[in-house]
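Minutes, project huddle
Topic: does the predicted pose make sense with biotin bound?
PN asked that the exact inputs be recorded in the minutes so nobody has to dig through chat later. Recorded below.
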Amino acid sequence: ADFDVEYHDALPSTNDRARELAADGASDVAVIADRQTGGRGRRGREWSSPSGGVWMSLVLRPDVPPARVPLLTLAAAVAVTDAAREAGVDAAIKWPNDVIVPDAGDDSGRGGAKLCGVLTEMEGEASRVSWVVVGIGANVDVDPDELAGDATSVRAEVGDVPRRAFVQRVLERFDELRSDPAGIVDAWRERAATLGERVRVETTDGDIEGDAVDVTEYGALVVDTEDGERVVHAGDCQHLRT
Ligand code: BTN
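Predicted holo structure (tokens), as shared on screen:
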């Protein structure tokens, strides 16, 4: 794939290093660390990043308005899902961009254990972004006991995988997907665990509960609720097993 790789044994956060590179004008760099000491998740959460994971941030300069940036996040989830499936893991995507193993994990009822999360950050104007950093945290060669929450890993699901090959595959698939942006949402739909599920989405405006029926052209979730269809742009999604 057309990414220059910058490898570190340890970093506070690959997203922070990628933001520095982006601010200096870099593009198409993949920053990878074997472990992170201050890994960041969505909504200000910490992200457990022990040695053996794929903690990687892509520096991108797409010529698009901010509204289209979520497509790159969806593309990252698709790329990791494909790399995991090729390694034999029964992976699928939980909206918006968690890669999960739907039948793994405890009986909490939330449905599935998390294999990967994506944290996208950007800077720019309303008409055009200046840079985008897509941070991918994939639990590859790690023990789920070292991870927070209901998590799994490629190793826990199928045994050892060569981490280098996994990274290469993610970068190749991401490259293919970004070169055909019109196909990203369909690729996401085909791998979605969320569509057809009963969901509860926690948003900053409160919880929305209903049936997840579709995603829009920019990846927002369409939920069929008691009060009609709602389009949800951001939030934490739970699959409710009823
Ligand atoms: C989530 O909350 O699901 C998103 C997790 C994103 C973690 C990745 S690991 C590589 C990159 N660096 C970070 O500090 N976070 C992202």
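Observations noted during the meeting:
- The chain is about 25% helix and 35% strand.
- The CA atoms of residues 35 and 51 lie 5 Å apart.
No decisions taken; revisit at the next huddle.
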